[in-house]
Design brief:
The chain has 47 residues and is an alpha+beta fold. The chain has one domain (3-46). It is built from one helix and three strands. The chain has one helix at residues 16-27, and strands at 3-10, 31-36, 39-46. Strands 1-3-2 form a three-stranded antiparallel sheet, covered by helices on one side.
Amino acid sequence: MKKFEYKCVFILGLGERTTRILNEYGQSGWELVATSWVWHYFKREIN
């Protein structure tokens, strides 16, 4: 069974700043699962 860790991040900004931050999380192995206003929810598999 796969196991995941989760992270909730407050990202306040528009356009390029938000894109840069999301790309940094993606490069670190985090997958964006959901957003709610400025809250971004990520998960990644635990090896």
